[in-house]
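quick one, 454 residues, struct below
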Amino acid sequence: MTRNSEPSLVPSAPLNVGCVCMTLDRAALAAALIQETGDAAFYSRLIESRPHLFADVAVFLDAAELVQMQRIVEAIEAVIRHPAYGAAVLAWTPAGAVRDFGPRGVFMGYDFHLGRNGPALIEINTNAGGAILNAALARAQRSCCSDAVTPEFMDLTAFDTDIAEMFAKEWRHQHETGSPATIAIVDDRPGEQYLYPEFLLMQRLLQRHGHEVWIADPSELEYRDGCLRRSGTRIDLVYNRLTDFSLEQPEHAALRAAYDDASVVVTPNPHNHALFADKRNLTLLSDSTLLAEWGVDPALIRILSAGVPATERVTPDRTDRFWSNRKQFFFKPSSGFGSRAAYRGDKLTRTVWQEICQGDYVAQAYVAPSERLIEFDGEKQRRKIDVRLYTYEGRILLVAARLYQGQTTNMRTIGGGFAPVLLTTTAGLSAACQMCANRTEVIVSPPTRMDRQR
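---
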């Protein structure tokens, strides 16, 4: 059954479609980024040249919605540890991604739309970008409501230490003791990537915690004498930002060889992606009958049934049905990323449909995103909302939102980009908002089950 979303029925919608407060203090953001990097030109050179990286408004999220999201994450993490799930997933996993070296995958990303039936998981990402940038963004917010706060578990004063410890734990998951001396942040042509500023911030963060850190293109790496090296320096751990999730492309051969030999810790790695982020996995997580056959806890099945939209593989015997009902679905390539080659069914042409039928796609029941009101050049406009939970080992590190126009999330929308999240309560639409005519009550602490776990 197709799920829909109507902003008026989403708990947080009255604020998101009514308030136009501009909460981002760009001067404070610039000062913070300059201080973190020691580069006086960092903001003007790398942030101002990306005008759609940050939105000027915050996104309101009802505390109950956040609890629901956390429960969905917990349920998914539990099912992924189930032997039957692992067997099913590894049956379609590339051979090179089957072996588990131990790392759990840094910066897991769970993306949600806020539907009228509750939050709906749209996809899982193993190389979710933007966490460091969103932490800086959250620090630079100027609240429009007298008591507005970010979620309590987002202890921004300890965020950097937590991130450094996350990388240390990844090392210990593979080596048990010690820590990585040298870390490489690896992506194709990193200096050309839209999120390159984040690479620089991550480099500075890890350097402050005692690591030697390089930002490298895979072509700079070589594997010899049992070591992965860059310019002769041994690399102990790779923070992997590549979108070649299986490391199968020829230009990634050195990294692949070192990974296969367990000579370097790679996080996130092909095995992490296979378990979590292959879009075909959503067909398992949304199949209540199959989960029941596996003996999954009925309570977990109920959570997943409510929170993961029904997803099916696009196979030849189903193409006629999908085409006839295409408006009810969103079509995604099983190994896609960043919304590339993903399509809303009501926007499909016959030509694109033939490409989908010939590819390896899944069809996910469409859940329309909720919306956020913004003001641009004196005109009120609406932007779509996507909420992302950044997690590690199932624990939320950060919650953020992205505002956009179009079929899918992007960083090209005027007035869009990353946005911080403020928690509200549905019942408390009474306390005065200081900068606009809307009313809300913002809670200081999220529910106790969401308390930060140290």
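Residues 63-80 form the longest helix (18 residues).
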